[in-house]
Amino acid sequence: MADKPAPKPGHFLPGGEGEQGTADDRTAGGSAPLAAPTPRLGGDAPPAPPQLTGSRIDSRRTTLSGSRLGPPPAGDRAAAAYREVFHPEPVPFVPKKRSKALIALMVVAVLLFLAGGATFAVKVLSSDGFVSTPMPSTKPSGGTTATQGPVGKGTPDADIVGKNAIYSVGRLAVANCPEPAFRPTSKENVRSYYQALTACLDKAWQPVVAKAGFEFRSPNLIIFDDGDETACGVQHDLALYCQDEHGGSVTMPWQNIVEDYPKNKAEVRAEMAQSFGFVYGVHVQNLTGMADAADNLADTAANKNAQLEVQRRSALQAYCFGAVFFGTAKASFPLRGELLRQWTGLIQRRGDEHTKDKVRDHGSSKSLALWMNQGFATTSPGACNTFVAASAKVS
Fold first, then answer.
1. Rounded-to-integer distance, Cα 15 and Cα 20, Å
2. How many angstroms separate the CA atoms of 333 and 180, rounded?
3. Which of 81, 109, 157, 194 is most buried as measured by Cβ atoms within 10 A of its Cβ?
4. pLDDT tens-place string over residues 217-273
5. What does DSSP say about strands 220-224 and 240-242: parallel, antiparallel, or unpaired?
6. In degrees to the nearest 10, what's the CA dihedral of 250, 251, 255, 259?
7. Exposed/middle/buried for residue 295 (C-beta within 10 Å: 0-12, 13-18, 19+)
């Protein structure tokens, strides 16, 4: 079977060689080209569609005409619908008339306010429920300005330190507080030792501080490296207490303790307990208001000697408070044998006369021994009222 020739371009298009029938049949029959579906708005009848000749469209073209190229004619429904949606007629503003009675009431209120002839308050409840109330008058009926007096009665600093309620609470309860088992061989061990000792002191002092009417809080503990900037400033191998945003911080050294411990274990153990008892005693003074009061008295002392005496009274009381605790814990934290000898030796060497600068701000060895032994024996804060003692006892 011979191959059929390949169809020419336009073979499958209307009028191509592949179409059956004559051109007239195609024009008159159902395969005639479609006319435009609707006439254009406002225009004449559409021109005859272009005739198809073979595979190409007749080159005669039509041009656009009608209302799409110009303004719509009057009464055009499409234009009216467009204006109704996108360009509606503005709603006229009709001002409301105020009530004559309301206007009269407002005028009368303004006149009364300006004339000062009446005192009145308006109570207004908004949708949120807030209430506006009149400001209270600060002038009494006599016409003179009233001055509000102080609330309560202030306490002089001398009474805060000399008549403090902590002196009348009685003895501290017996404390079951063994010496912490952490030996000072590292910074972390030193920290753990002081944390355990803080817990014991808190438990012993909290009931009596609360009984005296003061709020109790535990001190913040800081273990510092030499030269560190702490809440109490730059530290150099001294145990200190200071008031700060924590309500009071205890700062304790550790490096020399770890270094000295192998050389004299009993002395280092006594040093750690005694120095921490002192700074905790300052914390008790802070809780009871005596620390601030003593500072105020020192700042207003008549001369330098009087200022140093106030400072000695304060320091000796802190040592006494520390000894009160160890007296309550003497059964579980025994100071005996070599530990007791080192404890006593530290008291003798801590006096102001043995310091390098000889500043008499903490008390002599004799005064230290007097107040610490008194606190240890009585276990009562009342035995530590150094502020009413004779000057000879706070030398």
1. 9
2. 9
3. 194
4. 999 999 999 999 888 889 888 899 988 887 899 999 999 999 999 999 999 999 999
5. unpaired
6. -40
7. middle
Pairing of strands 249-253, 220-224: parallel
Kindly give, in sequence order, each residue whose CB lies less than 8 Å from that of residue 33, ignoring residues fewer than 6 positions away. Answer: 49, 50, 51, 52
**Crossing angle of the two packed helices 365-378 and 337-349, in degrees rounded to 10:** 140
Could you tell me where the DSSP H helices lie in 212-264? 255-260
pLDDT in tens, 5-47: 555 555 544 555 544 444 444 444 444 444 444 444 444 444 5
Q: Residue 276, exposed/middle/buried by CB under 10 A (0-12, 13-18, 19+)?
A: buried
pTM of the model: 0.64
Residues found in the chain = 395
How many angstroms from the chain centroid is the CA of residue 266? Answer: 45
φ/ψ of residue 393, rounded to 5: -90, -5
Quick check: 237 and 227 in contact, CB under 8 A? no
